[in-house]
Amino acid sequence: MAFKKFHEVSSDNFLTCHICLREYEDPRVLPCYHTFCLACLAQHVAVSGTGGNITCPVCRQEAPVPPGGLDKLVRNFFLSKRTMLDMLTKESKDKMCGNCHSQVTQFYCQNCKHFFCEICRQKQHDAMFFLQGHTMIAVSELSKHVQEMKGVTLPCDKHEEERLKFYCTDDDVVVCRDCILTKHNKHNCVDIADIAETHKKKIESAFNNLSKNISLFENAESEISIQQKAAFDDESKTVTDIEQQEVDIIEEVQRISAQLIAEAKDHASTLEKSLEAEKDGVQLQKVSIQRTCEFAKQLVQHGSDTEVMMHAKNIQARIKELSKLKPTFPAKTTDITSNEEKIPVKCFVLVKKYKWLNTASLVNEFDSSIGYLSGTSCSQSGTIYLVYNQPGKLTAISPSHKAIFEVEVPDPRGVTVLSDDRLVVTCDDGCRVYSFSGEHVQTFGQGDMATPWGVTVDNNGHILVCDRTDKCICVYDAVQYNLINKIAVPICKDPRYIAVLPCRDTIVVSDFDEHCVYGVTPQGDVVFQYGTPGKMGSDDGYLDYPWGVCTDSVGHIFVADQYNNRVVVLTSDGQLLRYVVGPQHVSVPTGVAIDNKGQLVVGENGRQVKIFRYMHYMNTSHVLLLFGRRIESKSSSKATMYKEAWHSEAPPSSSERLSHPDLQLYLPKERKIHIVYLQNGSVVNKYHKLYFYIYKQVQYICIT
Question: From CA 410, how far away is CA 408, in angstroms rounded?
């Protein structure tokens, strides 16, 4: 029977509001196609304090409150029908009279929404004058009545006597006969039954294809759960190992064992939170797909032609949008392993010795053959991304310098690579997010900025966007792309491009018209300035319309000094270090970036892209940071050298740099610090143990 089939196709909780967890009362549909009770939505908006916006409690997508209030949200008519049918189906079978509770019900009053036996109907209901005229349906006829309800055409909200039997293809709206005569008489209006069947097939095909993606999200969710458990187990074992090791080590290491345990817990906690956030995101996307598919399925199978056409355009657009979503599978994390122990490694650092080349060597170059290059960025896989504002293009170049993709972007200015290989491109209509294959995922930042320009990612994974007109830096989270903060940079006249120093939070900003580069904290404080404001020049301390900026892993700052035809290198505190390439190497450099091999990528205004090797990394030195009292060596013949790196009792700042002829090291925020250099792998003496630890395929040496 039709009403039974209509009841069985839905999922168990399709009729349940996700806010009150009860069956829907006056269900309303949000633009994301999640349905809630009208009263629940009103309470949710009041509590959340979002004002003119509604944040969906399921998928967190924001939508504006319709003009006229929440009551203007589209009613879920077919869900209302489904709720009523469900009630009739459940309650009519062997139900006792709702009045006397002693006789089996025989009638249902559509007006009173109540069941009656024959006696109560005649002697009580029909005997009351004000109840005369109500529509009574025999229980035996309910199935036929339910079957007829499926094809009921909705009334027009503008002409109550007319039914919505037509569809205006010009305005994409369902209309009645009077609507055609008054406002749509010159439009192409067709019988709704003729066009609804076509759209039903399109919607059904679309949601069937989308449903296939659910298994991908389930796999991602399962993988995250496995890694969550592994992270928890690793934390427990790490803490146990550290506690067991504590009884065997000397007094100095005993002092820091508590700290090491805390480090292990912090490491595990951070990983767990990160995985939980990833899992939450995957679950939200999965739920969005499931609910949209369920909605579309119900609409196609049980919605009237009018109902189908009320949602046809938007539901297909929503399905198309969700079809682009792909689950992000978590990267495999490498455990901290040891041949003797397991221990957190934040107390140990791997320091590379490096040496500047006398002259930067040109490793490779290629002709972009497109136009005016405005921004450059590199991924960890070696892909180079270039944006050109004349013409508006985003191009991806492989490590072998072959074009991967090329897409049109309206007036692009800057580009950066996020940690998951998504791209953010600033352009005329805001900040566009692209997949690694060049597919436009979404746009954010509209309304937050006047003129978005340079873009980068800070040490916390947040997206930073420079607003040229409003002279500020907007900070966004990289998951929901919500605005977190605005950092004012009033010292700049024309801020363009930005970069962030590693191991500190200083933001480097190029000021195009003022011929300067500034270092700014997240609080907006200026920590350094390079260049003379308002004066261009080619001498030391001068710039000529600086454009792109970037930083390398050591903390050097690279500035594209456009019309001096050079790239300037500054120290992390803004002091001139050298000119890494000059007029003999480049012409009008605009974009600078560091690739995955630590090489400098320079994009020229003249379409050339050049890659330079500027430093030579020598053998690695393994360094142990010891906190507190200095450990004295009993044996001076073991080629072991100690160097006290910090003498003050006050902790150094996170940006404190430790200098050595061949080394540079950024220190964490800790107390008194000593550095130990181990030469030729010599064991210190009998009072100390030497352990080797592997963390993410990097070798560390710990002396205890």
Answer: 7
**Helical H segments across 126-213, by residue range:** 142-149, 177-182, 192-211
**Backbone dihedral region for residue 280 (phi beyond 0: left; psi -120 to 50: alpha; all else: beta):** alpha
Amino acid at 508: V
Tell me what pLDDT residue 455 has.
Answer: 98
- Confidence at residue 672, expressed as pLDDT on a 0 to 100 scale: 31
Domain edges within the chain = 2-153, 154-333, 374-545, 619-703
Own/partner pairs, 643-652, CB within 8 angstroms, 24+ separation = 643/674, 643/675, 643/676, 643/677, 644/674, 644/675, 645/673, 645/674, 645/675, 646/672, 646/673, 646/674, 647/672, 648/672
Residue 200 phi, psi (nearest 5): -60, -45
Task: In whole angstroms, give the CA distance from residue 570 to residue 577.
Answer: 5
User: Exposed e or buried b for every residue in 389-404, given b needs 16+ CB within 10 A?
Assistant: beebbbbbbeeeeeee
Task: For residue 78, give the nearest of 27, 42, 148 by alpha carbon.
Answer: 27
DSSP state of 494: S
pLDDT at position 94 is 64
DSSP letters spanning 550-583: EE-TT--EEEEEGGGTEEEEE-TTS-EEEEEE-T
Crossing angle of helices 214-246 and 251-302, in 10° steps, is 170
* Contact present, 329 and 220 (Cβ < 8 Å): yes
| SS3 (DSSP) at 72 | helix
Q: Residue 84 has what pLDDT?
A: 58
In the DSSP assignment, the letter for residue 634 is S
Question: Which CATH architecture fits 2-153?
Answer: 2-Layer Sandwich (3.30)
Amino acid at 233: D
Q: What residues contact residue 520 under an 8 Å CB cut-off, 6+ apart?
A: 473, 487, 489, 506, 507, 508, 509, 526, 527
Is residue 330 reached through a cis peptide bond, with omega within 30 degrees of 0 on the bond before it? no
Sequence letter at residue 606: G
Chain position carrying tokens 């970069």: 499
Q: How far apart are CA 502 and CA 519, in angstroms?
A: 13
Mean pLDDT of 634-656: 32
CATH of 374-545, one of 3.40.50.150, 1.10.760.10, 3.30.70.3180, 2.120.10.30: 2.120.10.30
Question: pTM score > 0.70 for this model?
Answer: no
Residue 442 has a pLDDT of: 93
If we measure between CA atoms, which residue out of 630, 626, 627, 669 comes closest to residue 651? Answer: 669
Q: What is the DSSP string of 201-251?
A: HHHHHHHHHHHTTHHHHHHHHHHHHHHHHHHHHHHHHHHHHHHHHHTTS-H
Could you give phi then psi for residue 22, rounded to 5 degrees? -120, 175
What is each CA distance from 250 to 49, 246, 263, 445, 685, in whole angstroms? Answer: 57, 8, 20, 55, 13
- Residue from 629, 634, 657, 630 nearest 643 by CA: 630
- Indicate the pLDDT class of residue 12, thresholds 50, 70 and 90: very low
In the structure encoding, which two tokens stand for residue 668, read together?
A: 């964490």
pLDDT by residue (tens digit) across 485-507? 999 999 999 999 999 998 778 99
- The percent of residues above 90 in pLDDT, for the chain, comes to 32
Strand ranges for 368-467 from DSSP E? 372-378, 384-390, 392-397, 403-408, 414-417, 423-427, 430-434, 440-444, 452-457, 463-467
